[in-house]
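Archive maintenance. Older records in this collection stored only the sequence; we are now back-filling the structure field for every entry so that each record is complete. The fields below show one back-filled record exactly as it appears after the update. Entries are processed alphabetically, and Chemokine-like factor is next in the queue.

ARCHIVE ENTRY
Title: Chemokine-like factor
Organism field: Eudyptes sclateri
Length field: 137
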Amino acid sequence: VDSAFPRSPRGAVKIARALVASAAFLCFVASRSRGAYTALAVMEVVITALFFLLYFLKLDKKMSWLFWPLADIFNSVIAALFLLVVCLFAVIIKTNNGTLAGGVFGLVLLVLSVVDAVLLFQKISLDGPRGRNTPAK
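Back-filled structure field:
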């Protein structure tokens, strides 16, 4: 267990993403919004929680068959694109106050996804060694 991860900037952003996505989900559910809004919020909560657990339990080191930070960057970028479309639509349509609030939380989540992608991109180096088994240059 990496007990320092939740206090790191990446861990704090992951926790914030999960909390804001949960708030957006609750707003969408309370307003009886369309299924796309709630489905996107639920998927964001689940995927962010899984990546948080992956890093928190150090499973990324044990499952080295995939370069997890790069997969996390792809997740953040794709989530940001989906959030841009769906939450702008929710804010523009604003069927009721719950949909509007969920859309605003979704736009905040969009910013957090971009921040997460930038933090992860700064962490990785594509031309350096990745692990202990890689021979030194």
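Update note: The chain is about 75% helix and 0% strand. The longest helix spans residues 97-123.
Entry marked complete.
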